[in-house]
Design a protein that fits this description.
Structural class: alpha+beta
Distance between the termini: 92 Å
CATH topology of the largest domain: Protein Transport Mog1p, Chain A
Largest sheet: 5 strands, antiparallel
Strand content: 25-35%
Order of helices and strands: HEEEEEHEEEEH
CATH architecture of the largest domain: 3-Layer(aba) Sandwich
Helix content: 25-40%
Number of strands: 9
Strand order of the largest sheet: 2-9-8-7-6
Number of domains: 2
CATH class of the largest domain: Alpha Beta
Amino acid sequence: MLCPDCGNEMPDTAKSCSYCGRSLRKAKRSGGGAMAVKILLVILAIALIGGAVFAMASQFKRETVIGPEYDPSAKWVAMDFSDYGIKMEVPGTGWSLYYDAQSQVVFKDGIRGALDISFLGAMSLNPDAHRVDNKPQVFTVISQDSVFLEGFGEAMYTVVSCKEDGALVNKHQLYFKRTFKMANKQTQTFTYVITMTCSSGVDSQYAPLFRHMLESIE
């Protein structure tokens, strides 16, 4: 090696210059330490870049998998809120209705869309047997209003109070008729009765659900 001060050549194992006395050990250590620092900085930079790329990829993956897919076990609950003292009654039909309270969207059998009257179908049984406003010995009428359903006309919206299985409940009911022109050009009128039952203690919490369904009928 060469002495950095006087330039004389010295053995590689020399600890100091025999001409000027310059320590050669210190110069060797200084060069090795600088190289080690550079290596550590490169490793740190690679780690930071790799972490940033991983975070961006993870975020992208999360954003791509989130969507409106129907998953009854995770996102949607059946319209039958039995655990909360609420049940949905649509006499004469066998549809399975689902409602997502967060997005305010009604689902039918896994198909996304607003609650449409065609999902409910026309009742084949006597609709008056299911009206809550014609049985004063059973139901106490809380309110009764005439509402307008766009495309269907006037409907009766009734809220009553009664006892079921010893518990006080409220019933929200929509009652209306619609006339269709059949294939033979004759007209036929169908009656629809939709009822939601909930315990009186949670009526204020769940009644907006039923009102939203009325607005969704189109």
